[in-house]
Amino acid sequence: MGVRRYTKMAYKEPDDMVFGHAKFPVLEHWNVQFGAGYVVPEVKVAPEAGTERSKDTLVKEMASIAEQAAARAVDIGLPAFMLEQEHVFQQTYHPDWGYACTLAQAEVLKKYYDEYGVRACLRQTVGDLRIEEKGGLRGSEYDNRIAETIEECCKAGASDIAAETMGGKSVLDYGVMRGDIKAILFGIGYLGSVDMEYFWTRAVNICSKYDTRPAGDTNCSGANTCMYVAGGLLGKDMSHTAAALARAISAARSLVAVECGATGPLKDCGYENTIVKAITGVPICQEGKNAVCAHADVMGNLTCQVVDCWSNESVFHREEMGGPTPAVWLQATGYEAALMNTAIQTGNAKTLRDLYTFTDMYRDPQGTLLAYPNAFRVGKAIVEYGKDIYLRARAAALEASKVMMEAYEAKLLQLTRFELDTLRKYTSILESLPMEAEIFVDQCMREYPRKIPTFDPKSYGL
Amino acid sequence: MALLDWAKKADFDMIFKRYNVIIEGPAIKPEDDPDVKKVLPKDEPFKSLAMSVIFGDTEKAVQAAKSALDRVSPLDVIEKGLAKGMDAVSALYAKGAYFLPDIMLSADAMTAAMQLAEQKLGRAREKKGTVVSFVAEGDPHDIGKNLVVMFLKANGFEAVDLGRDVPDKDVIEAVKKYKPVMLTGTALMTTTMTAFPRVAKALQEQGIAVPIFGCGGGAVKRDFVESYDMGVYGVKAFHAPKLAEAALAGKSWKDIRKEYPKIVGEFVAEYADRM
């Protein structure tokens, strides 16, 4: 399957988007559907430290996580849920471990489906082990093992495959640490998109041989790094307006997985997913207020706005007062999904959507950018230059800048001097960048390889 | 659309408060900040050297160093000019007036100018001590380690950067080779942070005692880092040089654990019980 670039929006109006509904729903194992008129809760739990010491201990840990989640789903009456397992290093590095762990979880979910009819699907998120300075991103030992593990997970019964690929991260990190928006654009928007095409063309091909959906890829390593470094309102490491620009750029990059054939639901920590859904119409997972165990973001309600699968992001596997964490956090996401599904069933979905959005729309510039009417605008800017991975990423950032400045000038969004200065400075730099990808890449290649020792241009065909 | 109507009517103060905007004081020049005034040299050429670092202007720092080296010793250029600028930058960062990119650009300016001074000196400036830094095996996330290395270098330490996804045995070999005053390990994930106790145990078995500044993303916590000998939980990357200085002054890993807030000189919520 070739790469199909998006030059049109899937939705005509932002108001057409609402949680639980996607233009192109996805059906997975045990009759779990995403975007088909209801929201599915998700739970994700990291194995306890030390269980990775052997295949046997890790497999048992995986089965335990699945068992505890499924039991709580039945205990509180959830109709359906998704269990996601983000791989630890060993799970992807040893394909046979990946197989055995997936099989153990799939068997537990099937048992509960057979016994109670609770519909549950299983996401396997492979680890991106590749390191540019250790063999490169293409064809290295790590790279080959990822491909093998994807195939093994498909064989073992994974309902879908997701990833959080690292393409462009060496340059992105440099940009974050030095406040260099050109490096952020090059790292996420250009290099990230190039690597996504490599990774997802292959992943889609593997999944197509099995009853496993190629789900999608979040820019966790890029835009979430920015969000994490930016931190809360008193954070002093990165401007929140800069983090918002990085997020807009990441939408142009995360779109590539869908262009390669990924179907969604897009992975939960992709805060850019609202933009990608507006463009493609594929269902999305999201995290927010029920992911406080993992991320302290500043838009906990807003991310519910158009979600199809509501996640807790990640939590240690341990005991809380309310039970083991797979149970506790599925309960939290399950009740939130139930609220959204109640709103859908009673005809109040759009009102609830707008309440979710409004609580965080002006709390922070990142929320302003991602509020669905504004996310839609950024999506339109991307498809206008849809065939050019550089120009569309640049256009996304410039539109994001307009969105934030308009909200600031309307006195709805408050900004600190640092946030405002950064926004103005970065916008001016983005505007001055060339309108030809070749010239931009040439400029970047003259600068970044000598400044960033871990950047391997060959990994991107440069 | 309801959102537009709500935006006109809602009292945002009842929904959220942007405290960063509320507490922001008037804009002042960095050199007018009282903490900067305390460390900023008054005389030339040192003031110009320090100011070029404060503004993170590599070109100006190099020019100032070239010009200063005709008049004063390379060591004075470094100690009385460039290092004072970096002290000012650290003060501005600690109080929230400067942000991470500012500090990185200042470090770049200082490094470029210092290289000129060291060329004239004919050798590298004597470093305070050596620290070895690594990212745990199986972990590709290195932004935290890069920050630690930058802060250590900017504060006069020799920072040996082993990179990311570093096998335990390479860390142990490096400790034996460089004999550092401190070892720093960073990890993002629960299952990669387990490298820290493995490394600590292996070092102990070989009779090596060195504080291991362990820090990282959401997974690494104080109770974990203090669950094995030699581990010191690092809260902020910029604390690393102060802890290394404490180790250099002879404090053991047990002392550093106990006195962490005192050593870094500020309130640290994670060590509230030891304030």
In words, what does this structure look like?
- The complex is a heterodimer of chains A (462) and B (275).
- Chain A is an alpha/beta fold and 462 residues long.
- In chain A, 53% of the residues lie in helices and 11% in strands.
- Chain A has 16 helices and eleven strands.
- In chain A, the strands form three sheets. Chain A has a seven-stranded parallel β-sheet with strand order 7-6-5-4-3-9-8.
- In chain A, helix 6 crosses helix 14 and helix 8 runs antiparallel to helix 14.
- Chain A starts with 20 loop residues before the first strand and ends in an 11-residue tail after the last helix.
- The model of chain A has no long low-confidence stretch (mean pLDDT 97).
- In chain B, strand 3, helix 10 and strand 4 form a beta-alpha-beta unit.
- In chain B, helix 12 packs across helix 13.
- Chain B is built from 13 helices and five strands.
- Chain B is α/β, with parallel strands linked by helices and 275 residues long.
- Chain B starts with a helix and ends in an 11-residue tail after the last helix.
- Chain B has a five-stranded parallel β-sheet, with helices on both faces.
- Chains A and B meet through helix 2, helix 5, helix 7, helix 11 and helix 15 of A and helix 1, helix 2, helix 7 and helix 8 of B.
Strand tally of chain B, please?
Answer: 5
Overall mean confidence score, pLDDT of chain B: 91
Q: Over the alpha carbons, how many angstroms does the gyration radius of chain A reach?
A: 21 Å
Beta-strand segment tally of chain A = 11
Give the count of helical stretches of chain B.
13
The run of helices and strands of chain A is: EEEHEHHEHEHHEHHHEEEEHHHHHHH
- In angstroms, what separates the terminal alpha carbons of chain B? 52 Å
Specify the biggest β-sheet of chain A: 7 strands, parallel
Count of separate DSSP helical elements of chain A: 16
Largest sheet of chain B: 5 strands, parallel
Write down the Rg of chain B: 21 Å
Distance between the amino and carboxyl termini of chain A:
24 Å
- The largest sheet of chain B has its strands arranged as 2-1-3-4-5
Question: What's the overall average pLDDT of chain A, rounded?
Answer: 97
The ordered H/E elements of chain B are: HHHHHHHEHEHEHEHEHH
Computed structural class of chain A: alpha/beta
Greatest contact between two chains = A-B, 60 and 48 residues
Q: Report the structural category of chain B.
A: alpha/beta
Unreliable residue stretches of chain B: none
Proportion of helical residues of chain A: 40-55%
* Binned strand content of chain A: 5-15%
